[in-house]
Amino acid sequence: TKTLAKVANHYSKKSKGVLALLNQKDIDSFLARFPITDVWGIGYNYAKYLLSHNIDTALKLKNSPPKWIRQKMGVVGERIVTELN
Asked: What is the DSSP string of 12-39?
């Protein structure tokens, strides 16, 4: 997905190499270290709101209840969570 591609791109630029997120274990490992403020589509206000609810990594956002995300962030937030999954 576009969101996971941007996560992989972020890490590959830091390591100056190629990064392939192929299995769920690898994806979750990287998402656990990926700050919520760097997730594509999460702006300043959403980031501040999510941080106030102790969602500080992309993995925590991915594991958040979809119904709660839909209520608080709308369709855009739900799409981001779907792409992370």
From this structure: HHHHTS-----SHHHHHHHHHHSBGGGS
Residues in contact with 81: Cβ distance below 8 Å, sequence separation at least 6, in sequence order: 61, 62, 64, 66, 69
pLDDT digits (tens, 9 = 90+) for 42-82: 889 999 999 999 999 999 999 999 899 999 989 988 998 98
Q: What is d(CA 19, CA 37) in angstroms, rounded to the nearest whole number? A: 21
Instruction: Provide the total of helices (H) and of strands (E) in the chain, helices listed first.
Output: 5, 0
Query: What is d(CA 43, CA 39) in angstroms, rounded to the nearest whole number?
Result: 9
pLDDT of 16:
67
CA distances for 8 relative to 18, 73, 75, angstroms: 9, 24, 24
Q: pTM to 2 decimals?
A: 0.82
CA–CA separation, 11 and 19 (whole Å): 7
